[in-house]
Write a structure and sequence with these properties.
mainly alpha, 70 residues
Length: 70
Amino acid sequence: MIKTITFALLHFTVAFTVTYLLTGDIVIGSAVALIEPAINTVAFYFHEMGWNRWGEHKESMTEVFAQRVA
């Protein structure tokens, strides 16, 4: 969870900086910095869940194929 929190803080900083540099508007930079990384952090959580589930599936499929070949 610490990794996710630190990644979110980094993402907030990058999102604000890029948006502020492009628009020159602190309000828009702040809005983008809060909205986009928050959504991305949630998406990352679900991506990790899916990735872990796929990894489990991949291992079981490897066992099935190994048994069929043997």
